Amino acid sequence: MFFKKKRINYVKRIFLIFLLMFVTYWVICIDFVSLFGFFFFNKFSKFKNNFILFLKKKLFLLKLIVFLIKKNIFLKKKIFLLESKLIILNKLKFKNDIFSKILSISKFKKHKYIIAKVIFVKILSKHNILIDKGSDFFFKHKNYYLVNNKGLLGRIIYIKRHFSFVKLLCDYKNIVPVQIMRNNLRFNVYGSGYSNFLKTKKLSSLLDIQLGDVLVTSGVDNFYPVGYPVGIVYNIIFQKNYTCKIIIIKTFVNFNSLSYVLVKSNTD
């Protein structure tokens, strides 16, 4: 009996020891898992927060870049519109300067006139131009001549509804009665066929004509009024032992750069 009782106590002790070891192991495992989980989730939470903050910064930068691109496109369009307006304003200023110079001609301040734009050159020949005014502004039975701020240009030879043909002074078929301002000597000049130059037929070498003399219209043909600037004596060519001479005149007007002109009727 004693031996059995002692054996039972011994088994109980072993059982208690195993139970204690199991409980101790279980507690240690639970604490380790809890500690590991706390450490892992804490680190993951920090990584998650940092990653979200990084994404927010990148998204903000992306939105800022998109905004700046849109703003840049808008500013480029605005600059383009402003440059277009500036070109238009410069063009209007250029026109205004031309009109101011043309209207400064004293002869036109008391007479009716029409402002026309040169829309094409060298139509029928290299000494004809086209202006943007036609029969809506001009009467076909009237004669019209053209001037600008430099002087006389030519005459209208053909009128259509929306445009008119103009024969320039330098056309070789043109004849203009002129006089020298210095001594009122009168003679005719003809188109030379070259831009910006006129010439005379053979004149007596005894006529008082000097280089640099200013020529204006004489009005003897009742077409061009008196006093419009034509040109200056550019060269004198003597022929046949100085018995006669031909005068070369350089016009005040540059026929290669015409833009706006004044049109006037010789009967107004």
Q: Mind sketching the topology for me?
A:
Layout: H1 2-103, E1 114-121, E2 128-131, E3 144-147, E4 152-159, E5 164-168, E6 175-180, E7 186-191, E8 197-199, E9 203-204, E10 214-217, E11 229-239, E12 244-251, E13 260-265
Structural notes for this entry:
Mean pLDDT is 76; it is low at 1-5. By secondary structure, the chain is α+β, with helices and mostly antiparallel strands. Helices cover 38% and strands 28% of the residues. The chain is rod-shaped. The relative contact order is 0.12. A hairpin with a 5-residue loop joins β7 and β8 (197-199). The protein has 1 helix and 13 strands; from the N terminus they run αβββββββββββββ. A 6-stranded antiparallel beta barrel has the order 1-2-5-4-3-13. A 6-stranded antiparallel β-barrel has the order 6-7-8-12-11-10.
Number of helices: 1
Q: Please tell me the overall pLDDT.
A: 76
Gyration radius, in Å: 51 Å
Strand content: 25-35%
| Fraction of residues in H or I helices | 25-40%
What is the rounded distance between the termini? 162 Å
Low-confidence stretches: 1-5
The sequence of SSEs as H and E is HEEEEEEEEEEEEE
Strand order of the largest sheet: 1-2-5-4-3-13
* C-alpha geometry: rod-shaped
Subunit organisation of the chains: single chain
Number of strands: 13
Biggest beta sheet summary: 6 strands, antiparallel, barrel
User: Structural class of the secondary elements?
Assistant: alpha+beta
